[in-house]
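User: These chains co-purify. Model them together.
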Amino acid sequence: GQSLEQPSEVTAVEGAIVQINCTYQTSGFYGLSWYQQHDGGAPTFLSYNALDGLEETGRFSSFLSRSDSYGYLLLQELQMKDSASYFCAVRDRKGRRALTFGSGTRLQVQP
Amino acid sequence: DAGVTQSPTHLIKTRGQHVTLRCSPISGHKSVSWYQQVLGQGPQFIFQYYEKEERGRGNFPDRFSARQFPNYSSELNVNALLLGDSALYLCASSPPGQGYNEQFFGPGTRLTVL
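Assistant: Joint model of the two components:
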C-alpha cells in the first residue's frame, strides 16, 4: 500500500528555520510535492521534487532523496502567516495526476 | 484570472440521500481531480478526469461517481450517503502537458451528513 509519514505538529518562533520531514512508501514514484493549507482554506502548491537534491523557492526549500524515500520542506525566516498545515504528496502513477497525501504537519509559529 | 470554483460551499444532508457537487476548473485546464478531506487528515484521491474521460479512481465505493462536461467542468455524485461521508470535498485542476504534480485546488464543499 501507499503511506507517507510526517510529524503531526511542529512549533517554532518567528524568524526561525523549521524542517518538516516526510518519508514515503509507494508502489511507484513520480515526484514529491508540498502543499500548504490554512485553516478553512484550500491546499496551495509550494514545491515539487522529481530528482534528488534541493529546490529553492524564496523562503521555502524542498529536498528529496529517492534512495532513502525521504524528503523535507525547509521554511526559513518564519512569519506568523506561515502557521498552517503542510502536506507532502506523492504522485505514484505515470500519466495520472492523482496525488497521495500525507496526514499533514500542523506548524504553529509563535511570536 | 478566476481560480477553481466549487458549489455549493456548504451542504447538509441526511443519511441515505444523494448529493451532487460541482466544480469549474481554471480556464485552459483540462484535467479535474476530486479529493475527500476528513478533518485532521490529508486529501484522499477520489477521481481524475481528463478530456471527459476517467483517468484514475481512488479507493472509494461505487456510491461515488463523477463526470466531466465538454467545457471541462465536473460533477461529483455520492449516493446513499453515510455519516462517514461527512468531509470537505476538494476539486483540483491542472493545465495540459504539465503540472502533473502542481494542482490548483478550489475552496471545497463542506458536506455534513446527519
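The mean pLDDT of chain A is 94.
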